[in-house]
Amino acid sequence: YFIQSNLSYVLRSMSQCCSVETRVRIWLTYTFLSSFLHFSAAIVFGVQYHLYTISLWAGIGGLYAVTVSFLHFSTLRSLSRVHSSTLPHSDTPPPPLQTTPPLHVLHALLLTGVLGMIFSMGLFFWAISKAISSNESPFDVTSHYILAVWTFLCFKWSACLFHRARHHGNEEDTSRGSDDEHDMSDEEDRVPILGVVEEEEDDESLLGAGEEDEDVEDDRRSVEEHPADVMKSDEEDKKEEEEKEEEEQRDREDP
Fold first, then answer.
1. How far apart are CA 80 and CA 84, in angstroms?
2. Which of 159, 227, 232, 250 is deepest in the core (most CB within 10 A)?
3. pLDDT value of position 246
4. What is the CA radius of gyration of the chain?
5. What percent of the chain is modeled with pLDDT above 90?
């Protein structure tokens, strides 16, 4: 516990003056070291002292630390891909859209973190109350104080897992929201163009209808102004039709 606390303080102070990628590397190293210490403590308490409850909770804390390190590793991988794709003269393809675990995996990790916090904190208070009521020495390896220490470390890593899973889930929601906004903006850009095309077609149809109306109006005006000419033209047309019919009959009668 003393080693992990000092490591956390030193790495936090170092990460304040570094870039984002360096900070992620630092915390990835810290989570790996912490998981190694947890698994080592689980082996020691189980094999050497036969304290299987402490060994179990030390191993559970190590599993939580490994899961947090996996999330840090996914963040580091996405950052390295973005950095390599933005370099000049780089043939590396752009990073894929899916740079974090899927949402159902993140929801499962959130639930796991919540359950770990609840059970570890409940066992922590039980171990403290048991040690105080039994007047146990905090320097005794078999005391409940040691169990309280490892349950508290398990609570810390389950809280870290909950925080990291929630952070990745927010990033996933933000990326999906930006993609949806981009698609909506594209659709909005297309709608005015379609509207302009429809307006142009309506204008053309209106122009065609206006020309037909003008032709009808000209014919009506000509009939009103020169009715005699119109009658003559009608009579001439009838005479021409009658002559054509007579010629057709003659052609049919002649052998």
1. 6
2. 159
3. 76
4. 44
5. 33
